[in-house]
Amino acid sequence: MPAKTQPLLFLRQNLRRGGGIVLLLAFCLALAPRARAQEPELHFEHITGEDGLSSSSVRAILQDHRGFVWIGTQSGLNKYDGIAFTVYQNIPADPNSLSSDNVRALLEDQQGDLWIGTLDGGLNHFDPTTETFTRYQHDPADPTSLSYNVVGALGEDHTGTLWVGTIGGGLNRFDRASQTFTRYQHNPADPTSLSHNDVWSLYVDHQGVLWVGTSGGGLNRFDPASDSFVRYQHDPADPTSLSSDYVVPIYETRDHTLWVGTNDGTLHRFDRQREAFVRYHRQDTPERSSPWQNAFRVIYEDRHENLWVGTEGDGLYRFDREHEVFLPYRNDADDPQSLGNNFVWAMEETEDGLLWVGTVGGISKLNLQGRRFEHYYHLTHNPNSLSHNQVTSLYEDHLGYLWIGTFGGGLNRLDRQKKTFVHYRHDPANPPSISADMIATISEDSRGTLWIGTYGNGLNCFDRENDRFIRYQHDPANPRSLSNNVVVSVHEDHTGALWVGTRGGGVNRFDREQGTFTAYKNDPLDPTSLSSDYIWSIYEDSRQNLWVATWEGGLNRFDRDSETFEHYEYDVNDPHSLGHNNVYSLYEDSQQRLWVCTYGGLNRFDRDRGTFTRYTKQDGLVSNIVYGALEDGEGYLWLSTIRGLSRFDPRTETFRNYDVRDGLQGNEFLFGAFHKNRAGEMFFGGINGFNAFHPDHIFDNPYVPPVYLTNFLLLNKPVKIGGDSPLERHISETTDLILSYEDTVLTFEFAALSYIHPKKNRYRYQLEGFDQEWTEVDSTRNFATYTNLDAGTYVFRVVASNNDDVWNEQGASVRITVTPPWWGTWWFTTGWVVLLLLTGWSGVRFKMNEQTQKLERQRRELEHEQMLLEQQQRLDRVQRELAIAREIQQSLLPPAHPEWDRLDVVCYNQPAREVGGDFYQYHAFHPHRFAFAIGDVLGKGIPAALFMATSLSQFDASFAQAFLPGERLAYLDKSLMSYTWPRRQNCGMCYIELELAPDGSPALIHMVNAGGTAPFIRRREGTIDWPEVGGIPLGMGYGARTGYQGKTLEISDGDMVILTSDGMVEATNRHREMFGFGRLEQAIRSGPQDSATTMLQHLRAAFEAFVGTAEVHDDVTVVVVRVDLPRKA
Questions:
Q1: DSSP per residue, 937-958
Q2: Distance of CA 889 to CAs 546, 919, 943, Å?
Q3: Is the pLDDT of residue 203 over 60?
Q4: What is the DSSP string of 1064-1082?
Q5: Does residue 36 carry a pLDDT above 60?
Q6: How far apart are CA 1020 and CA 1050, in angstroms?
Q7: Of 769, 798, 822, which residue constitutes the final position of a domain?
Q8: Which helix H or strand E contains 829, and what residues bound it?
Q9: Which residues pair with 1006 in a beta bridge?
Q10: Cα–Cα distance, 307 to 287 (Å, whole number)
Q11: Contact criterion met (CB below 8 Å) for 711 and 749
């Protein structure tokens, strides 16, 4: 069983039984060379081959002047836009392709041109307008060619001269005008020549001096006046010389200090005045088994003046220049946020403040602006980490210790100054140990005593002095004992009374002096008793009201004088009643507003009027399941949910949502795991540890991202550049585009070049002259498609935001001219008028001849009428045959309205022609499991109908075997290949299975897609889910090899699932506007919820009203399923 389901299962079982360093400012101060203090942990994000990188072995990284990131690997060159990679590799038959896939060096020159050095293919120049490469390679017969094809380094001096260092052929100076190279090579007889022909690094400093690092010859300084070199080499007798002659990285920092790294792991600072080196050795350098092991490979200074050093096998270091120490960051196999690999070859800082570290294990990205949310989590082999990742409670005591309760790992005490954890685990052989490892709640009373509630093993009081626990548990023989051992809430009221909430035993008032409990439970015969014995939390507000939140019993207010409870519950007929009867927690803010967190969203309670104001997903809340609320110093409420954190502004009633991409432990937080300390810092726990942050230090990313068009497609195929193509330049550099009226389907792809959580970037696009409004999409839909544009001029515009909704309103644009067909041009119209005049003039001349030809025409007309009569008879016969075929096809489909107890189902199929290719099918495995599918075969008419019958029969046959959903589609993909391959056909299909729980618990929907339209899920409360599931159509053979990946979600009572074919969304009206997914989603959202039939009628009405008199060119098939679950007892 997955770990994250265990707390929920435990709660259900009990119900059935009846029983940091968080901040941008702090990060930068901690990293600043002048403030060493305690080194913060670094958390890296990773990009590898699994994300589309052509190889995880990264040798070079560069951000160009436009904002694209170029990555050189041992398997090609990559251009990255934050969403996708464009990979450039060697094509043997194409001389304009990259000369070699093994890329070692990258350089963008002063003109904005990109140069690529390879390890076996020489030098390449990239033309971004045509996306082609020009090669410069060694020619033994040409002394002005490149001296060697193994390029190790590239550099450009202040005059714009390009320098190329080769490993084995020395140094080359490139003359752009003559396209020739001048070689500088080692001459043993000349001490002013290059010291070695293995050139590993080049650097031009602020004075324009070219420095050359060699493997075995030390460091060289080029003197342009004498066209010679000054050498700096290792001298065993001189400690101010280089420690080794194997020089790789050379780098000049902002203070004009020159740094040199060598293969022995020594960093050198060059004193220009004394012409001497100061050596810095790593204090923990491991033993080397080869000359290059642990060698320095790259040096880089970031915008905060931190000096980073990458090594060959020993990870990444930050060099603290003030204290002259190296601070290591290495790969930890148990920590997914550590450095990706210890072989570090390249570094680059992008404009948005990310440090990109290229390793043999891909790219590791570090946000130099700091982490918004510090993340603490369990590391398997690190005893000084959190004991378990499922965090159920958090509390900082009066001594400043942070206590963390976990579900399975016991209790943790974190000393945040020392960054050390102390674990308290249950020991069956030790009675003073904590009573269980499944912690539910932690609280400290006014006496400084710590109370810990557990799932199933009662209440614990922590004796700090003796470091032991005192247990309080349920004793069936003692009515004054704790009423239930599942303790989920402990609260001390203003009188000093301790209240204990249990799951199944109601509320207990604890007499600490006597050690006895007084229980308050639900009495079905007493309406003033507690509404439910299943407690979530207890809270006392500023008016000294004691509130009890319950499971399915709503909210209770306790009257201490009468010892009775007033109930507040959900009323379906009262919009101002409590939003849901499952109440998790309460919070009173600084304005004395009482907030109620429920399974149905956030509620604001007006205690004077007894009314509730509800806030749900429809208002912008990330999830309706809200566990806890905390207020920050600015009056914002921070809400923990099962889909991330929401920050709510009560003044504007707006939400700002954060998810795992922002650094959260995960999207799923857990009940009870939220706390704010005296300093205003907040803590939220979930299924993957917990987050700590101070809301005052949650800053937005201010970077305004450049926006570019990244691809252009016609008929869903990328358009090549040049030749007969409408693209003369790459689409990112194209301002005007001329298309033919025959270019019926065009698609633009685009990207915002902000790399901090790029999946959160958003886009708005509009085709001026066609679209009336802007369309907003997220990064998963960074494209726009248009069909059948009329002749005319249009302008496509796209603007974009970064991850924090900071927009580039200028964006990118391209002017589009669609030329008319030849019969729609001005010259054709003019010619037609002239022809009419000539025809009229000619008619006079032929008037007399017409009479003599009249009889002949009449004869021909009689013959033509006879021919038309025979054609009509043949057409009538074909129509009758098609009608019969339609009847046969429709008979293959099951009834449109199956009668099932717990599902309300209705199906609809309307072919665009007499015989179509769409079909639907359903199947009942047993009373609790059902399958539904919509298929759409390629083509129309009789061939499509035959393939439809074949697909339907194969689909029906598959139910004779026990397949998982993905396996069933893989089986169909393979079984249809014998039919599809000779006919070049395929079948798109969306397939779902509904699994209903016998007891009325939420159902499960398993979804798999093979080229069909993903299902829409209309929730009972009116929200829409459109899961991202996709795959290759059936009959192509890919799915049988790679499999089909699906997705599973919960379905509740009253939810609807809508399956459609693409005929509905692709239908157009007489203005050639597509019905589209947006209108379909709106129709579903506004549709009735009472039955599947009324929803189908609503969808058909919306569709037909939109299409009007226009012809529908594709089949339309819809299946609506409404889930009717029995209510739990």
A1: ESS-HHHHHHHHHHHHHHHHHH
A2: 67, 9, 12
A3: yes
A4: HHT-B-TT--B-HHHHHHH
A5: no
A6: 12
A7: 822
A8: helix 826-845
A9: 993, 1048
A10: 24
A11: yes
Q: Are strands 918-926 and 903-910 parallel, antiparallel or unpaired?
A: unpaired
Cα-based angle 198, 201, 206 (whole degrees, multiple of 5): 140
1055 and 1123 Cβ atoms separated by less than 8 Å: yes
Q: Are 729 and 816 contained in the same domain?
A: yes
CA distance 397 to 491: 14
Tell me the C-alpha to C-alpha distance, in Å, between residue 124 and each of 95, 120, 202, 385, 722: 11, 12, 17, 49, 21
Q: Of 661, 663, 667, which is closest to residue 627 (Cα–Cα)?
A: 667
User: 465-483 pLDDT, tens per residue?
Assistant: 999 999 999 999 999 999 9
Q: How confident is the model at residue 12 (pLDDT cuts 50, 70, 90)?
A: very low
| Residue 279, both tokens | 């050596």
**Cβ density class 333-355: b for 16+ within 10 Å, e for less:** eebebbbbbbbbbbbbbbbbbbb
pLDDT at residue 1003, rounded to an integer = 84
Question: Any bridge partners for residue 714, and if so which?
Answer: 717, 746
Q: Which residue shows structure tokens 């005591």?
A: 397
Query: What is the number of other CB atoms lying within 10 angstroms of the CB of residue 1024?
Result: 15
Q: How many angstroms separate the CA atoms of 631 and 23, rounded?
A: 18
Domain of residue 857: give its range: 826-884
> How confident is the model over 37-55, as pLDDT tens digits?
345 678 999 999 999 999 9
- What local confidence, expressed as pLDDT, does residue 10 receive? 34
Residue 150 has phi, psi (to 5 degrees) of: -95, 100
Q: Is residue 1056 part of a domain?
A: yes
- Identify the residue whose tokens are 């642990």: 294
User: Is residue 982 located within the same domain as residue 911?
Assistant: yes
Residue 1064: how many CB atoms within 10 A of its CB?
Answer: 27
Number of domains in the chain: 5
The DSSP bridge partners found for residue 212 are: 202, 220
- From residue 258, alpha-carbon distances to 209, 272, 309, 763, 1089 in Å are 11, 8, 14, 43, 71
Q: Write out pLDDT tens, residues 660-704.
A: 989 999 999 999 999 999 999 999 999 999 999 999 999 899 999
Q: What is the 3-state secondary structure (H, E, C) of 704-770?
A: CCCEEEEEEEECCEECCECCCCCECCCHHHCCEEEEECCCCEEEEEEEECCCCCHHHCEEEEEEECC
Q: Considering the chain, what is the average pLDDT of its residues?
A: 89
Specify whether the CB–CB gap between 321 and 308 falls below 8 A: no
At residue 885, does pLDDT exceed 60? no
CB–CB of 649/602 below 8 Å? Answer: no
Within a domain: residue 621? no
Report pLDDT for 957: 82
Q: Are residues 724 and 846 in the same domain?
A: no
Cα–Cα distance, 951 to 873 (Å, whole number): 34
Q: Which amino acid is at 23?
A: L
DSSP letter at 1012? S
Q: Are 324 and 280 in contact (CB under 8 A)?
A: yes
Say yes or no: 1019 and 943 in one domain.
yes
Tens of pLDDT, residues 796-810: 999 999 999 999 999
Q: What six digits make up the tokens of 136?
A: 């410069």
Q: Give Cα 839 distance to the centre of its chain.
A: 67
Helix or strand or coil: residue 834?
helix
Judge contact between 89 and 99, C-beta under 8 A: no
Domain boundary among 452, 473, 494: 473
- φ/ψ (deg, to 5) at 761: -65, 150
Flag the least confident range among 21-30, 637-646, 815-824, 962-971: 21-30
Residues 774 and 813 in one domain: yes
- Cα(16)–Cα(126) distance, integer angstroms: 68
pLDDT average, residue stretch 815-836: 65
